[in-house]
Amino acid sequence: MLPKILVFAGSNRTGAFSGQVADVATRTLAALGAEVTRIALIDYPLPIMDQDLEKEKGIPENAVKLGRLFAAHDGILIASPEYNSSIPPLLKNTIDWVSRISRDGEKPLRPYAGKIVALCSSSDGNFAGIRGLYHLRSVLMNVGTQIISEQCSVAHAHEAFADDGSFHDERTTRAMERVCQALIDHTRLAKSR
Questions:
Q1: pLDDT tens digits for range 94-119
Q2: Calpha distance 18→122 (Å, rounded)
Q3: What is the full DSSP assignment across 115-175?
Q4: Would you tell me the Gene Ontology cellular component terms (predicted)?
Q5: Which of 132, 137, 128 is nearest to 172 (CA)?
Q6: What is the pLDDT of residues 167-185, one digit of tens each?
Q7: How many angstroms separate the CA atoms of 20 and 165, rounded?
Q8: How far is Cα 101 from Cα 85, in angstroms, rounded to an integer?
Q9: In this structure, what are the phi and psi dihedrals at residue 144, rounded to the nearest 5 degrees?
Q10: How far is the C-alpha of 108 from the C-alpha of 68, rounded, in Å?
Q11: Domains with residue ranges and CATH for the chain
């Protein structure tokens, strides 16, 4: 059975480098034998996380839809930009809302339970977004995911992509292949237990 992997970027910006990284990851995972679902967070708009709002109106339907998607996949690959050395607010808000879900109607729903996660980053600078991944890793560990150690960080992202959307640099291509293979391997191992 093919591992099911969900892929998304932590930015909705038109032409976002993180979206391009997510596209490369999607193609790489598929080539390595995974069943891949690529989504865009822009299709799941959410209000700012607010417990008063949650108490008054409940968890937003788009958060529940995302929670169902998370739960239906063996692994998740997140391609994140770095905002001021940390997590973009869109991504943090999404993680926070989904963490509030414990039920889907009458059925229990634990979107992060046993989820294997791979992280990628990108930026125009020399650090390639890795400072933000430190914070993202911490948040995702706190909600109960298992984050693999392999990661792919794309520096100088404005010049990292070829016309066909692949990476110019062979080293970055190999890093992405390692991340994707490790994610597939870890999800297969988790499913076999």
A1: 999 999 999 998 899 999 998 999 99
A2: 6
A3: -EEEEEEE-SSTTTTHHHHHHHHHHHHHTT-EEEEEEEEESSGGGSB-TTSSBS-HHHHHH
A4: cytosol
A5: 128
A6: 999 999 999 999 999 999 9
A7: 7
A8: 28
A9: 100, 15
A10: 11
A11: 4-192 (3.40.50.360)
